[in-house]
Specification:
The structure holds 2 protein chains of 2 kinds.
Chain A lengths: L3 E4 L2 E4 L5 E7 L5 E7 L6 E7 L2 E4 L7 E4 L5 E6 L8 E8 L9 E2 L3 E5 L1
Parallel strand pairs in A: 2-11
Antiparallel strand pairs in A: 1-3, 3-8, 4-5, 4-9, 5-6, 7-8, 9-10, 9-11
Chain B lengths: L3 E3 L4 E4 L4 E7 L6 E7 L5 E7 L4 E3 L2 E6 L4 E6 L8 E9 L3 E4 L3 E6 L1
Classes of the chains: A mainly beta, B mainly beta.
Chain lengths: ~110, ~110
């Protein structure tokens, strides 16, 4: 059974048109992450939530925002997608930030920009 | 210098071969270590955690050398299904996970 669910699997949007990617989890994990992964590159952490505490990476562009309305859901908003934002976006969860648990990933959303 | 560096690959090996991947990390305060496997256009999946004493899971053996800041993964008796990209992941304090760029493995018949 899927425990970290991302929707949609594939998303196509127009240049500059806002887009929202969603992630939900059934694990009741308190930490949720968003990564961007481009072809043949390592996943790049954009930000993470520890409960409601938002932690932004220093080099994440302002164009990327996130919301976590409750434990189960987390959203990635791209306000004005550019061609360089085409990538796989991965959501991950872990059970506790302090105990260094492995992360559980969703299937990812592949974003294309026209 | 990248925080986590891996063998560039790709590795192309015949079925049944033994193959080893190496990974070095720059943060001496790193606390936990993992190997993930990622299939083409799929999400990373945890292969195994890496413990200080070294650990084995079937055909897979992971080693950690904290003094040298080095992690390895050994795959014995390679199967076609082992073809994937193997990501070295280092977890700093407070679950600050850093990924290597991955090493691609292709096992051929």
């Amino acid at each position: 059974d899927a425990m970290v669910i991302q929707n949609p699997r594939y998303q196509v949007t127009q240049f500059g048109k806002p887009v929202t990617l969603s992630c939900s989890q059934t694990l009741n994990h308190n930490v949720m992450y968003w990564y961007q992964q481009k072809s043949s590159q390592a996943p790049k952490l954009l930000f993470h939530y520890y409960d409601k505490d938002f932690n932004n990476e220093a080099d994440t562009p302002d164009n990327f925002q996130s919301r976590r309305p409750n434990t189960s859901f987390c959203f990635l908003d791209i306000r004005s997608p550019g061609l360089g934002d085409a990538a796989m976006y991965l959501c991950a969860t872990s059970s506790d930030r302090a105990t260094n648990q492995p992360q559980h990933f969703g299937d990812g959303t592949r974003l294309s920009i026209l | 210098r990248k925080e986590v560096e891996q063998d560039p690959g790709p590795f192309n090996v015949p079925e049944g071969a033994t193959v080893a991947f190496n990974c070095t990390y720059s943060n001496s305060a790193s606390q936990s270590f993992f190997w993930y496997r990622q299939d083409c256009r799929k999400e990373p999946k945890l292969l195994m955690s890496v413990y200080s004493s070294g650990n084995e899971d079937g055909r897979f053996t992971a080693q950690l050398n904290r003094a040298s800041q080095y992690i390895s993964l050994l795959i014995r008796d390679s199967k076609l299904s082992d073809s994937a990209t193997y990501l070295c992941v280092v977890n700093n304090r407070d679950n600050d996970m850093r990924f290597g760029a991955g090493t691609r493995l292709t096992v051929k018949p």
